[in-house]
Structure to design on (1241 residues):
C-alpha cells in the first residue's frame, strides 16, 4: 500500500497550509489546493470561451468577447448571449453541482462507490419526470416536477434508513432498493407510453443541456449561491464524520444533525441539477475520486476543486457531443463514455490496494 | 527429523518491500514452536508462507522433503493446517457443522461422509471439549469457546502439523489459559507438531518447547524458551528492557516489560480532573441489558482501570460514561452533572474518549487528525485560531509524534497510530480521559509506550483517566483505582492491593492463580496456575 | 464486541433438524406445483383446472382454452420455472463466492452485456425477430462478464470481490451509455427493444427456451454439485486455502456457471432483477448457512417467486399485464430494505 506513498517526494513534508483570518471568518487553506483551483478555473474559462465560438456558425473569439462586453454586433450578441451562453453556463453549473453532491455522499457514507445516481435520488427524479412527459403535460413544469421527485426519493430513503440513527451501510442498502423501485416504475411508464413520448423520456433520461434558457441559469445560480457556502462549511464537519461515529461523538459532534445537514445539501445539489439537465451519469461518481487523487483528502478547498473539475467534464462532454461527432449526442452519454474508461484505468492503478 | 522447514525464504506483498528476508527455519517435529516478535516483524506472514498461502519471492518452503508449492493443495491440507487469525464463521453455523468443514481435504466431490469423517469429527469435538456445545451456533459462544470451535475444525482436518496464528488475542486470562492448555494437550496426548504465532511472550514461555524470536523479517534468536526469553534477548527483540519473576507454580520465569514511570511521583495536589460517578446505571444495545444497576464512584484526578472477563460490560460502561450510549436506567455523572444533559459539544470540552478500532480515511495527515480534537472549540465560520494551533502543537509534543507530523496515518505503525489518537484526545483539552483497551493489537514495547504516556498525562496535571484493560498486571501497575466487573455488575472497587487477590481472580475470571509482586513497582501480579496438573512428558 | 450479538431466531431456524428441513422443502415444492397450475389458469381469460391439465396431458387442438394454455400459458410457466431457478441458484453461488450479501448474478455485468448485444444487433443488423435475440443476448452477456472478470482480476491480488464489483458497475455504465446513444439515434430500435429491455415472461417462445436449455441444465446441475465447495469458499480466502482449496480456480468455475445461468436467463426473459439477490436471503432463514441446503431451497423458491410475480402482474393490470421484471423489483426492493433494517449490519 505505502511503497508508492513513501517514495513520493511530498511524503512526510509539511504541506503548504496557511492560516487565514478575514474578520470573523478564520480557516486554514492549503496553498497547493488553492493553486489547483486557480489553474483549473483558468482552464475552465478558456474552455468556456472556446465553447462560445463553436457552433453551426463559427464566431472568432474577438466577436465573442465583444458580445460579452456589450460591444458586439447584433448578430453576435444574439448568437452568443441568447443561444450559446445559457447552454455553456448551464453546463458550467451542472457539473459542479453533481460533483459536489457526489463528494458529499461519498464522504458521508465512507464508500467510494456511492453517488446520488446509485442510491436512488436521480431515479426518483426520473420517475416523476418521465411520468410528467408520458402523460403529455406541459414541459415548462418539468424541472419542478423532477425536483419534487428527487426530494421525495431522498426523504423516503432517509426515513426508511432511520432507526434511531442513520447507519451508512443501511443508507446504501435502502438506497439501492429504492433505486430499483423507482427504475422499475420508470420502465413501466416507458413501455406503456406512446413511442414518441417514450423517445422523449429516454432523451430526458440520458441527461442533456440542450435548449437551456436564462431562467435555468438563474435557478442554478441561486442554488449554487446558497448551497456552495453551506457545502464548504460542512466539509469541516464532514472530515470529522469520516473518522467514524465513535470519534465524531467523542469530539462532541451532534452526529444526526450533521448527517441530516449533509444529506440535505447533497440532495439539494443533485435534485436541482437533475431537474434542469436530467440525470447526467458518472460525474457524481467519478469526479470526487479524481479530485481526491490530485488534491488530497476531502475538505472545503478540495470540494471547490471537484466542482471545477465537474464543470470541465460536463462542458467538455457537451462540446464533444455537440460538435465533435457526426451525430449529436446528449451530454450524459458522453460523460459515461469518457468516464468509464478513466475509471477502469483508476481501478487498474489502485488494484493493489483493494 | 523435520517435516516442515523454510529455506532462505524471502516474502513480500505486492509493493515489493520484503517483509521477511532470506529466512531459514526448521520446525521440530512433535514439539510446540512459538514465533514471537514486535508488530510488523513478519511473523504472521512467515506462518502464511509455511502453510502455502503465500508464494515466496525467493527460497522454498519444504514439506516432507519436497517444495510445498509443487505439491497439490489438498495433499498439503491433509498434512498441515493453518488457523488464521480472527477467522469469521458463516452466520449461525453450528459448532458441529463448522468442525465438519475441516474434513474437506479428505473428501472428494461426490463422496458421502464416511465413518472415518464422523470419527475425526467426534474426536475433534472431544479433544476441544466442545461435545456439549456441538449444536450451538458459533455466534452465541464466548470468545474462548469460539476459539475452541475453530481449533476443533482445524483438528478435524486431522493433520500432524497445526499452525495457529495468534490464538490468544482478544481473550481474557481464563480463556487464554483454556486455549494454551488445549495446545499442550494436543501436543502431548495427540502428538501433533504445533507452530504458534504469539504476541504475548509469557504465553509463549508457558507452552513452547522452542521459541523463535523475529525482528524486522529476520530470526534473531532461536532455542528453548529459557534460552530465548531472557531479558537481554527480549530487549534486543522488542526494544524494551524486561524484568523476570519466578512463577512459584511452574518454576518458569515470567518476563515483565519495564516502564519508564517514576512510581514515587505523587498525584498532583490540585488535579484538573473531576470525579465520575454512576448511580444505578444500566445500559446496553437494543433491548439487551449489558450493564446492570452499577453504582460506582471513580476518584478524581487518578487513573482507574476497569477489568473483567470478555463481555462483562466494561466497554459498555465506559461508553455510557462517554455518552456514546444512552443509559437505560440510572444516571452517569461527570463532576456531579449528568452526562446526558446539555450539548454534546460542552461534554466534549470536559471529557474525551478513545474508542476501540477508530478508523481514518486514507491520506489524512497526522496534524490534521490531531486538529480534529479542536472541534468542540470551533464553529464553521471560525475553523481555526492561533490558540488551536498552539494546543495542537502541545498535544503533538506531549505524545512525542512531532517527527510524524506530516505523515499520512496509514503509513504509521500500530503504536504510533495509538499515540496520534491520544494526541487528538489531548487536543480536546479535557480534564477526563476515557480509553477503551488502548493496548490491543500492540506488542509489549508499544503497550508500555502507550501506558507510560497515559500515566504521564495523569501525573502531570491530574487528569482523571479511566481505561479498560485486559492485562491485570498492567492494570495494577498503572492504576490507582481498580474496578472489577463480572456479568454487567461491579464486583469490587479499590486500590490494586485491595482488589487483585487470588479469591477475586478466581471469582471474576474463574482462574486459579497466585499473586506475585511486580518487580518494578511492587504492585500485584497475577500468575495463573494450571487447572489440571499436566503430566511431565517422559524424557 | 457488539458485533457478536446474535439474532436468536435465525440461529434457531438454522439449527432445524434435517427432517424438518426436508419437510419444509417438500412443502415448498408442493406450493410450486400449485403455483404452476395457477399460472396456467390465471390471465385475461380464465381457464379451468380440467382444461389446464388436459392441455398438457390430453391435448385437443379444437379447444380454444387448451390452445391458449398450450401456446401462451405453458411457455411462460416453463420459462418462469427455468429462469427463476437459474437466477436464484446463480445468486446463491455468487453470494458464497464473493462473501458479499449484496452480490447477485448481475454483478458480473451479464444483464447490461445482454442488453448491449440485443440493441446492437437490432440497430446495426436490423434484426427484429426475438427468436434471434437470444443469441445476441447470450453472446453479449458472456463477452461482458468475461471482460468484467478480466478487468477485475488484473494485478497481483487476483479477482477480489471488491474489484469485481467495481469493474461490473463501470462496464455496465459504459455499455449503458452506448445503449442510450443508439436508442436516441433510432426510434425504431427503441420501439423494438423496449419490451425486451424490461424482463418479461410473456410472448417468449418455447423454442427460445429449448435453445438455451442445455446451458440451464449445465449451470444448475454444476452449481448443485459444488454446494460443499461453496461452503468452504464462503469461509474466506485463508481458511478455504488452508483446507486445500484452490480458491482462484473455484471462483472462476463459479463465475462460469453463474454466467451460463444468468446469460441464459437474460437471453430468454430479458433482465429480471432481484430474484438472484433476494431469494438466497429469503431461504437462508429456513435452510441455515449450509449452501447445499441454500441451493436446494433456492431451486424451489426462485421459480415460486418468479411465477407468483408473473401471476400477480397478470392480475393487477387485467386485462393487460405488468411485466414480471417490474413486479420482482417492486416486491424485491422492500424485501432488501427489510433486510437492511432488520439486521445489525456491519460497516460495508
Amino acid at each position: 500500500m505505502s511503497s508508492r506513498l513513501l517514495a513520493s517526494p511530498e511524503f512526510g513534508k509539511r504541506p503548504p497550509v496557511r492560516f487565514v483570518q478575514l474578520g470573523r471568518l478564520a480557516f486554514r487553506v492549503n496553498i497547493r489546493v488553492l493553486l489547483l483551483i486557480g489553474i483549473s478555473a483558468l482552464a475552465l474559462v478558456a474552455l468556456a470561451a472556446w465553447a462560445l465560438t463553436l457552433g453551426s456558425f463559427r464566431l472568432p473569439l474577438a466577436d465573442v468577447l465583444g458580445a460579452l462586453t456589450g460591444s458586439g454586433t447584433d448578430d453576435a450578441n444574439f448568437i452568443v448571449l441568447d443561444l450559446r451562453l445559457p447552454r455553456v453556463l448551464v453546463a458550467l453549473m451542472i457539473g459542479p453541482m453533481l460533483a459536489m453532491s457526489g463528494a458529499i455522499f461519498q464522504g458521508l457514507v465512507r464508500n467510494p462507490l456511492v453517488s446520488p445516481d446509485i442510491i436512488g435520488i436521480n431515479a426518483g427524479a426520473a420517475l416523476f419526470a418521465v411520468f410528467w412527459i408520458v402523460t403529455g403535460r406541459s414541459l415548462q413544469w418539468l424541472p419542478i416536477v423532477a425536483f419534487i421527485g428527487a426530494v421525495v426519493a431522498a426523504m423516503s430513503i432517509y426515513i426508511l434508513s432511520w432507526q434511531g440513527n442513520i447507519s451508512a451501510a443501511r443508507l446504501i442498502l435502502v438506497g439501492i432498493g429504492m433505486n430499483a423501485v423507482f427504475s422499475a416504475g420508470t420502465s413501466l411508464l416507458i413501455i406503456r407510453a406512446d413511442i414518441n413520448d417514450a423517445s422523449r423520456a429516454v432523451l430526458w433520461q440520458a441527461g442533456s443541456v440542450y435548449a437551456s434558457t436564462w431562467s435555468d441559469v438563474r435557478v442554478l445560480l441561486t442554488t449554487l449561491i446558497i448551497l456552495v457556502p453551506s457545502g464548504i462549511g460542512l466539509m469541516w464537519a464532514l472530515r470529522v464524520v469520516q473518522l467514524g461515529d465513535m470519534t465524531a461523538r467523542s469530539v462532541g459532534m451532534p452526529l444526526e444533525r450533521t448527517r441530516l445537514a449533509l444529506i440535505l445539501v447533497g440532495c439539494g445539489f443533485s435534485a436541482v441539477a437533475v431537474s434542469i439537465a436530467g440525470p447526467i451519469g458518472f460525474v457524481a461518481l467519478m469526479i470526487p475520486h479524481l479530485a481526491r487523487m490530485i488534491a488530497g483528502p476531502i475538505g472545503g478547498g478540495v470540494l471547490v476543486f471537484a466542482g471545477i473539475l465537474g464543470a470541465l467534464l460536463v462542458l467538455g462532454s457537451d462540446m464533444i457531443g455537440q460538435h465533435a461527432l457526426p451525430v449529436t449526442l446528449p451530454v450524459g452519454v458522453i460523460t459515461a463514455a469518457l468516464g468509464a474508461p478513466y475509471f477502469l484505468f483508476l481501478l487498474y492503478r489502485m488494484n493493489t490496494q483493494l | 527429523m523435520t517435516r516442515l522447514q523454510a529455506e532462505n525464504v524471502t516474502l513480500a506483498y505486492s509493493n515489493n518491500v520484503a517483509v521477511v528476508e532470506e529466512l531459514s527455519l526448521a520446525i521440530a517435529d512433535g514439539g510446540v514452536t512459538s514465533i514471537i516478535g514486535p508488530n510488523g516483524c513478519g511473523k504472521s506472514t512467515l506462518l502464511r508462507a509455511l502453510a502455502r498461502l503465500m508464494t515466496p519471492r525467493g527460497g522454498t518452503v519444504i514439506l516432507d522433503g519436497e517444495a510445498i508449492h509443487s505439491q497439490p493443495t489438498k495433499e498439503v491440507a491433509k498434512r498441515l493446517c493453518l488457523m488464521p487469525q480472527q477467522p469469521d464463521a458463516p452466520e449461525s453455523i453450528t459448532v458441529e457443522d463448522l468442525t465438519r468443514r475441516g474434513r474437506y481435504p479428505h473428501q472428494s466431490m461426490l463422496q458421502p461422509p464416511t465413518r472415518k469423517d464422523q470419527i475425526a469429527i467426534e474426536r475433534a469435538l472431544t479433544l476441544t471439549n466442545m461435545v456439549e456445545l456441538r449444536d450451538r451456533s458459533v455466534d452465541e459462544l464466548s470468545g474462548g469457546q469460539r476459539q475452541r470451535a475453530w481449533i476443533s475444525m482445524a483438528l478435524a482436518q486431522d493433520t500432524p502439523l497445526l499452525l495457529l496464528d495468534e490464538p490468544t488475542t482478544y481473550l481474557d486470562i481464563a480463556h487464554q489459559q483454556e486455549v494454551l492448555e488445549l495446545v499442550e494437550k494436543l501436543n502431548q496426548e495427540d502428538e501433533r507438531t504445533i507452530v504458534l504465532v504469539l504476541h504475548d511472550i509469557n504465553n509463549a514461555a508457558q507452552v513452547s518447547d522452542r521459541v523463535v524470536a523475529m525482528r524486522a523479517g529476520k530470526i534473531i534468536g532461536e532455542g528453548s524458551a529459557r534460552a530465548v526469553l531472557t531479558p537481554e534477548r527480549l530487549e534486543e527483540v522488542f526494544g524494551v528492557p524486561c524484568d523476570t519473576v519466578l512463577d512459584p507454580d511452574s518454576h518458569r520465569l515470567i518476563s515483565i516489560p519495564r516502564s519508564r514511570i517514576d512510581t514515587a511521583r505523587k498525584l498532583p495536589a490540585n488535579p484538573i480532573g473531576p470525579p465520575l460517578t454512576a448511580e444505578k446505571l444500566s445500559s446496553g444495545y437494543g433491548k439487551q441489558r449489558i450493564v446492570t444497576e452499577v453504582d460506582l464512584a471513580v476518584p478524581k484526578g487518578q487513573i482507574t482501570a476497569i477489568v473483567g472477563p470478555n463481555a462483562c460490560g466494561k466497554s459498555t460502561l465506559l461508553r455510557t460514561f462517554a455518552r456514546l450510549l444512552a443509559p437505560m436506567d440510572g444516571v452517569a455523572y461527570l463532576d456531579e452533572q449528568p452526562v446526558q444533559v446539555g450539548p454534546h459539544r460542552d461534554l466534549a470540552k470536559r471529557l474525551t474518549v478513545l474508542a476501540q478500532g477508530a478508523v481514518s480515511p486514507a491520506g489524512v495527515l497526522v496534524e490534521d487528525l490531531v486538529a480534529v480534537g479542536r472541534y468542540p472549540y470551533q464553529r464553521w465560520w471560525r475553523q481555526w485560531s492561533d490558540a488551536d494551533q498552539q494546543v495542537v502543537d502541545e498535544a503533538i509534543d506531549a505524545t512525542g509524534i512531532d517527527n510524524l507530523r506530516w505523515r499520512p496515518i496509514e503509513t504509521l505503525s500500530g503504536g504510533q497510530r495509538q499515540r496520534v489518537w491520544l494526541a487528538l484526545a489531548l487536543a480536546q483539552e479535557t480534564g477526563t480521559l476515557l480509553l477503551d483497551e488502548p493496548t490491543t493489537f500492540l506488542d509489549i514495547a508499544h503497550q508500555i509506550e502507550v501506558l507510560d504516556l497515559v500515566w504521564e498525562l495523569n501525573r502531570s496535571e491530574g487528569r482523571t483517566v479511566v481505561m479498560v484493560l485486559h492485562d491485570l498486571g498492567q492494570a495494577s501497575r498503572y492504576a490507582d483505582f481498580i474496578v472489577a466487573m463480572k456479568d454487567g455488575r461491579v464486583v469490587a472497587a479499590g486500590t490494586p492491593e485491595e482488589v487483585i487477590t487470588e479469591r477475586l481472580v478466581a471469582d471474576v475470571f474463574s482462574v486459579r492463580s497466585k499473586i506475585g509482586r511486580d518487580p518494578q513497582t511492587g504492585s500485584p501480579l497475577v500468575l495463573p496456575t494450571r487447572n489440571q496438573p499436566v503430566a511431565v512428558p517422559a524424557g | 464486541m457488539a458485533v457478536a450479538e446474535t439474532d436468536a431466531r435465525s440461529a434457531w431456524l438454522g439449527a432445524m433438524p434435517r427432517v424438518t428441513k426436508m419437510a419444509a422443502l417438500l412443502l415448498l415444492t408442493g406450493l410450486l406445483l400449485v403455483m404452476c397450475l395457477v399460472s396456467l389458469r390465471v390471465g385475461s381469460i380464465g381457464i379451468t383446472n380440467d382444461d389446464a391439465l388436459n392441455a398438457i396431458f390430453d391435448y385437443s387442438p379444437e379447444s380454444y382454452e387448451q390452445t391458449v394454455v398450450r401456446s401462451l400459458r405453458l411457455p411462460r410457466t416453463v420459462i418462469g420455472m427455468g429462469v427463476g431457478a437459474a437466477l436464484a441458484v446463480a445468486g446463491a453461488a455468487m453470494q458464497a463466492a464473493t462473501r458479499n450479501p449484496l452480490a447477485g448474478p448481475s454483478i458480473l455485468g451479464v444483464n447490461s452485456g445482454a442488453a448491449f448485444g440485443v440493441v446492437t444487433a437490432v440497430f446495426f443488423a436490423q434484426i427484429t425477430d426475438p427468436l434471434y435475440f437470444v443469441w445476441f443476448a447470450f453472446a453479449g452477456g458472456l463477452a461482458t462478464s468475461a471482460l468484467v472478470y478480466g478487468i477485475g482480476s488484473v494485478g497481483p491480488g487476483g479477482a477480489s470481490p471488491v474489484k469485481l464489483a467495481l469493474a461490473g458497475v463501470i462496464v455496465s455504465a459504459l455499455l449503458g451509455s452506448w445503449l442510450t446513444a443508439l436508442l436516441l439515434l433510432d426510434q425504431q430500435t427503441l420501439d423494438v427493444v423496449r419490451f425486451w429491455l424490461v424482463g418479461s415472461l410473456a410472448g417468449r417462445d418455447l423454442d427460445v427456451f429449448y435453445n438455451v436449455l442445455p446451458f440451464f441444465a449445465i449451470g444448475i446441475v454444476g452449481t448443485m454439485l459444488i454446494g460443499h465447495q461453496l461452503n468452504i469458499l464462503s469461509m474466506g480466502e485463508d481458511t478455504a486455502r488452508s483446507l486445500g482449496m484452490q480458491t482462484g480456480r473455484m471462483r472462476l468455475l463459479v463465475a462460469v456457471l453463474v454466467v451460463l445461468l444468468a446469460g441464459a436467463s437474460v437471453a430468454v426473459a430479458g433482465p429480471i432483477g432481484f430474484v438472484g439477490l433476494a431469494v438466497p436471503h429469503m431461504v437462508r432463514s429456513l435452510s441455515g448457512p449450509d449452501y447445499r441446503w441454500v441451493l436446494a431451497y433456492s431451486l424451489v423458491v426462485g421459480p415460486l417467486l418468479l411465477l407468483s410475480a408473473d401471476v400477480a402482474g397478470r392480475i393487477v393490470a387485467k386485462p393487460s399485464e405488468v411485466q414480471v421484471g417490474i413486479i420482482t423489483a417492486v416486491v424485491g426492493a422492500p424485501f432488501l430494505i427489510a433486510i437492511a433494517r432488520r439486521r445489525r449490519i456491519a460497516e460495508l
Chain C has one domain: 76-346. Residues 64-98 of chain C form the longest helix (35 residues).
